[in-house]
Amino acid sequence: ATPMSVMVGVGKAAEVGVLIRNGAALQTASRISAMILDKTGTITLGSPKITDVLPLGSFERQHVLRLAASLESGSEHPLALAMVASAREQGITPGKLSQFNALAGHGVEGEVEKHKLLLGNEKLMRERGINPDKQLETVQALADEAKTPMYLAVDGQLAAIIAVADPIKPDSVDAIRRLQKDGIRVVMITGDNRATARAVAAKVGISEYFAEVLPQDKSRKVQELQMAGEIVGMTGDGINDAPALAMADVGFAIGTGTDVAIESADITLMRGSLHGLADAIAVSKATLRNIK
Ligand code: ADP
Ligand code: MG
């Protein structure tokens, strides 16, 4: 395309809240054959709420919620913010956190009032020799409802199952359908567990998803699709997504996402809505038509 038609395209996109940082990306967008969408904060709102607190054994509800919130006060993960906010709403004051460790893709660990705490997914529990088998049925039922279940262990003992749910953005279903109608293969990617991923994907009409992907492995999934011959668009909002956004043929950041994601992307969706993707692709196609 001529510089002039690219400028016109960039301007048209801006009118609908799509910021194009690089003209080459505008031209590549028309050729995207596969679009990878991050789950949390991209398809969903990214502000999960606690839905279930299930204390185990002799542990009590208020106690486990307080311990979990105390531990999560050390983390900036959306799940952690949900936990801390929920506890506060219920009048719970977190205890003092000493020692804290974020375990990427797994959860968090730390010490609160002399208790060693571990909070996270099944993989984390197994890695620490804690057997969650008795809870698997309960956890599966929560995940089938598109909730994210977490295990809390106190001094090496399972103390609670805590689940959160992150609402899907109201227009994600329509926006995804638009991409599919354009003939684009839409794939969801998430660090979340397989069952939750399957449930969320089903709700938004996506049949292909990568689940339990460690943060450092997201960009590899982009490469896998590229090596299979796809022109890959990647859409994400998190620090986790930055390498994948940079690797993709066209990276799209959610405007409400982290600065790192925005800096790594070619295009920013200022309105947060996934409709910006089909809008950008339409502008791209119009731009190329103009010059033929
Ligand atoms: P995503 O952003 O897609 O949820 P992450 O890699 O950040 O992926 O997290 C993957 C999983 O690790 C989460 O679904 C959760 O089970 C666990 N996890 C990560 N961080 C935390 C945390 N702060 N508290 C509890 N669990 C966590
Ligand atoms: Mg995200």
TrEMBL record:
Where is this protein found? Cell membrane
Keywords linked to the UniProt accession:
ATP-binding, Cell membrane, Copper, Copper transport, Ion transport, Membrane, Metal-binding, Nucleotide-binding, Phosphoprotein, Translocase, Transmembrane, Transmembrane helix, Transport
Is Cell membrane among this UniProt entry's keywords? yes
Q: Give the family per the record.
A: Belongs to the cation transport ATPase (P-type) (TC 3.A.3) family. Type IB subfamily.
Name of this chain's protein? Copper-exporting P-type ATPase
Which part of the full protein does this chain span, and how long is the full protein?
A: 398 to 689 of 749
